[in-house]
Design goal:
The chain contains three helices and seven strands; from the N terminus they run βααββββββα. It is of the alpha+beta class and about 140 residues long. It has one domain: START domain (Alpha-D-Glucose-1,6-Bisphosphate, Chain A, domain 4), CATH 3.30.530. The N and C termini lie far apart (about 45 Å).
Length: about 140
């Protein structure tokens, strides 16, 4: 089992950052390793998503369930091929235009060799993911005045 956390204080409103993370369909445009993401079904507070990701030298095709609680959090859970996978993004407004963003990941891949690789590779991947969201925010969110 891999358990990781990354945190940043970013100069944008919580709602705007939440919307970037909640826009799962757009992940292939800017997220490292994502080749596709497609919402299969969406209701008021959740979505079923089909994704393809290149990770740990391997292509992963899986379905996940995203749960949305605007503008506070996005939680993503997946089953096979993972034994366990939960990624959670929390958005804490520090002011009208500054937000603390925290990403927490708990993952178990189910194969001892892959779990060992994940222990070494996933901390960097989670950091790269946070940076990808930060770059996307800089491109998409107007600066606060």
């Amino acid at each position: 089992m891999v358990a990781l956390e990354v945190e940043r204080v970013l100069p944008w409103p919580a709602q705007a950052l939440y919307e970037l993370v909640a826009d799962v369909d757009a992940y292939p445009q800017f997220m490292p390793g994502w080749s596709s993401a497609r919402v299969l079904r969406r209701d008021a507070g959740s979505a079923e998503v089909e994704q393809r990701v290149h990770l740990l030298g391997r292509d992963w095709h899986f379905r996940s369930r995203a749960e949305f609680e605007a503008p506070k959090r996005v939680g993503i859970r997946a089953g096979a091929p993972f034994r366990a996978f939960e990624l959670r993004w929390d958005f804490e407004p520090l002011s009208a235009s500054v937000t603390r963003v925290r990403g927490t990941l708990h993952a178990e891949l189910g194969e001892p060799l892959l779990d060992e690789l994940a222990r070494h590779a996933l901390p960097q991947l989670l950091q790269r993911t946070m940076l990808a969201f930060e770059r996307r925010a800089a491109q998409r969110i107007a600066p606060s005045t």
